[in-house]
Design goal:
The protein has 255 residues and is of the alpha+beta class. Helices cover 40% and strands 31% of the residues.
Length: 255
């Protein structure tokens, strides 16, 4: 976590909030929660009346105590869930002129030069024959090796990713190119490169042994001259667009 004052980030450009309250919360939280504690409570009242009129006060008390305990526990859980839901609705990420502010479970105030990269992917959950809508996931990486996972429920997360890259890539790309020309190793998460090698998990492949590099079905495909292929999930590669751009430049930067 960075300690900069948020004012150092400069003017706000865009703000992206976590999942806000909607009609779905009425049916997934409020109605079930209300029923969970109210039904045992109403049933306890019915038992109290029946037991009191037929067996006396002692029976009424002994009969309703378990149901009142159930109702009380359900009410406490209901309140805790509401408070958690409120806290989630207050979370957000924001892009400023000089960096980003992240207010999720933890808070981060990051200038652009404190960020080492971003990785992202599109996901679609499946259950039997059902498929969910497409959603985005992203991770922000800092120079201190923090990995900040961004919740797919953040509104317009795809818009955040696009705008982040539009601002961040022109800042970091000249630095990457200069370091590469100086012979330094450039880190892209699971992948790194220098002027002589493409490196995956410390395994070095000479550029002359690579035919082409493409993206297919969420994977970076490295096709070798011996017809073998190296496949790396794009979600594990930082700044993948910059990596592909460097490879495309060929002899100007590498090899």
């Amino acid at each position: 976590m960075q300690n900069q004052n948020i004012h150092q980030l400069g003017p706000l450009i865009a703000k992206y909030k976590d999942r806000q309250f909607s009609w779905s919360d009425l049916f997934s939280l409020f109605i079930p929660g209300f029923l969970a504690f109210s039904i045992p409570a109403v049933y306890a009242l019915f038992l109290a009346y029946y037991a009191y009129t037929n067996y006396g006060k002692a029976a009424a008390i002994s009969w309703i105590v378990p149901w009142l305990i159930i109702s009380t526990v359900a009410f406490i859980i209901f309140i805790v869930l509401i408070l958690y839901r409120i806290s989630v609705s207050k979370r957000y990420i924001a892009i400023h002129n000089n960096g980003i502010y992240i207010s999720l479970r933890k808070k981060y105030c990051l200038l652009w030069d404190q960020i080492s990269g971003i990785s992202s992917e599109i996901i679609q959950r499946k259950f039997l024959f059902l498929k969910s809508n497409l959603a985005f996931k992203a991770i922000i990486y800092t120079i201190n090796r923090d990995k900040i996972k961004l919740n797919p429920n953040i509104n317009h997360l795809s818009g955040f990713i696009s705008r982040f890259k539009k601002i961040y890539y022109p800042i970091i790309n000249p630095i990457i190119e200069q370091n590469l020309l100086k012979g330094k190793n450039i880190y892209f998460g699971k992948v790194s490169i220098d002027r002589d090698f493409f490196i995956v998990d410390h395994n070095k492949v000479q550029w002359s042994l690579i035919n082409q590099v493409t993206i297919q079905n969420g994977r970076l495909i490295v096709e070798l001259t011996d017809h073998n292929k190296i496949k790396i999930p794009t979600s594990k590669i930082q700044n993948i667009e910059l990596l592909l751009a460097l490879i495309k430049q060929g002899d100007n930067i590498i090899m």
